[in-house]
Amino acid sequence: MYIPDDIPGLHSQTFPIYHSRSYREPDNYRDKCVIVVGASHSGIDISGELASVAKQVILSMKEENQEDFELVLDKLRQSGKQLCTDYLSTTFSIVPPIERIDKDTVYFKNQTSIKPDLIIFATGYEYRMPFLRGKLQVDQNRLLKYHYVYPLYKQLFHADFLDGTLSFLTIPFRITPFPLAEIQSHIIARVLCGKISLPSRDDMIDEIDHSIIQHNRKYHQVNMINYTENLLEMMNESNKFFNFIFTIDNQRRIRKIIK
After folding, report:
1. What homologous superfamily does CATH list for 131-257?
2. Quick one: pLDDT band at residue 25, thresholds 50, 70, 90?
3. Residues 90, 92, 93, 98: what is their CA dihedral angle, to the nearest 10 degrees?
4. 10-121 and 131-257: identical CATH topology
5. What are the backbone dihedrals phi and psi of residue 23, each rounded to the nearest 5 degrees, phi first?
6. Strands lying side by side in the sheet with 92-95
């Protein structure tokens, strides 16, 4: 899990802090004042559930994440979820990022403050690979500061292993993991048995670095349709079969197609 450590006073607070991974039931927060940090899927979903039972829910988000916030709201709206914005001006409000914490009080960057009962950090997860320590050079700065795994060609193959013997499944986020892992596994198998050859290390690094320049911290945030089509092209398979990917019933068809 990831909780930002650059908030002054974070570890001197007198109230509890949690990560969204420990969230289970909204009733556990009934009649409490809750700050939710992070306006992606988990943060918005949790805020929507809490707003109906909590005394107050404050969603702390960065201004540059407003577009993502709207996209997530649209997705939840289509699924029939109760939205946090349905409670605006009653139990729900949106504020900028936290500036500092002073014991029982949280100060925000718009000069407002509040005394919450707790904070839930819906700030995602870190990539950590302790099993590689001492065996492979890992760029800790990229891994821990910028939150991406480097150098992964096609979000999958470590560029130092031209034979494909070190690969990582489902590293990207905002994906449908199991169907994607299925297709990635087929590519890995083809590389290992010599049916697909990876480019030179220099070519892979060039492509990786170009993508990082474009996306930076969102390097692993892929458009799953485009990404999957790209993987299918590597296997010389028609992308028309992509329509089958999202349902379990059609996984058998995928397996027959890309044996």
Report:
1. FAD/NAD(P)-binding domain (3.50.50.60)
2. very high
3. 140
4. yes
5. -70, 135
6. 17-19, 118-121, 33-37, 56-60, 92-95
137 pLDDT more than 60: yes
When mean pLDDT is compared over 66-70, 194-198, 218-222, 227-231, the highest value belongs to 194-198
Write down the pLDDT at residue 138. 64
CATH 3.40.190.10 matches 10-121: no
The CA-CA-CA angle for residues 230, 235, 241, to 5°, reads: 70
Cα four-point dihedral sign 187, 192, 193, 195:
positive
Q: How far apart are CA 259 and CA 233, in angstroms?
A: 15
Dist. CA 39–CA 96, nearest whole Å: 11
Q: What is the pLDDT of residue 259?
A: 53
**Residue written as tokens 């070190």?**
166
Which string of DSSP letters, residue by residue, matches 6-60? -STTGGG-SS-EEEGGG---GGGGTT-EEEEE--SHHHHHHHHHHTTTSSEEEEE
Which pLDDT band holds residue 161 (cuts at 50, 70, 90)?
Answer: very high
CB-based contacts of 99, cutoff 8 Å, min separation 6: 8, 107, 108, 109
Instruction: Please state the pTM of the whole predicted model.
Output: 0.71
